[in-house]
Fold IS1 family transposase.
Amino acid sequence: MAKIDVVCPRCAETSGVIRNGHSGSGAQLYRCKHCLKTFQLSYRYNGAKPETHQTIVDMAMNGSGCRDTARVLKISLNTVLRHLKNFAPHQVAQNVEPDAEVVICCEADEQWSYVRSKGNPRWLFYAYDRIRKRVLAHVFGPRNALTLRRLLALLGQFNIAFYMTDAWPVYRTLLASTSHVISKKYTQRIERHNLNLRTHLKRLARRTICFSKSEVMHDKIIGWYLTIHHYH
C-alpha cells in the first residue's frame, strides 16, 4: 500500500505526525508530536488556507483594494478586513540603533489624503533618510504644528544633522535655522517616495473613486507598507 508522508507546516517533521480526529466541517486533522501543532491539509473555504493571509497582504501592498482582493481570492470582504485589521505597524524604524548612526540629511514632508470624504483630510507626516534611502518615522493627523511636533518627537532618538523641507511656514517655527534647509531641490527623494506610495497603495491614488472608509484601516495599511519596506 502506498504511503504518503504528512509534513508538519511548523517544524517540517514527518515522523511524528499523527491523525487527530476531524474538524467541524469533516476534514481530517493532524497533530505533530514534536511541536504540538494541529493542522489540516484540505480546506473548503479559501479564506481558511494558511497562505491566504500573505496573499491578502501582498495584494494590499501592490495596488489592490479590499473588494478587489475579496473578488480575486473568492473570499468574503469581512475575511479580508479581518486579516488587515490584525496589522500592528511600527511608527519608527526598528533597524537603526539610537545614537549609533548619524543621519546627515533628513527630508521631511507631508502627504495629503482623506478618509470618507475630501472634507476629512488625513495627512501623513514622515521623515526620509536621504543617504540610506529609508523612512525613519511617520505620524498621521491634521496639517498643523501639533502633528509635526509628534513626528519630531519620534525623530529625537536619531542624530540628525540637517532637515530638508519645503517652504511650509510651520517648519521654520519648530526647526533650528542652523540645521534647517528649505529647498525643493533637496526634497526630491521624498517627493519621489510620495509617488511610490500613491502607485502601490490604491487608497492613495489620485483621480480615482478608491478611498479609505475608516481612519483605522487607512493608518494600518499605510503604516504596514512603511513597516515592511523601511522599518525592518
Remarks:
- The mean pLDDT is 92.
- The longest strand covers residues 102-111.
- Strands lie at 17-22, 28-32, 38-40, 102-111, 114-115, 117-121, 123-129, 134-141, 159-165, 180-182.
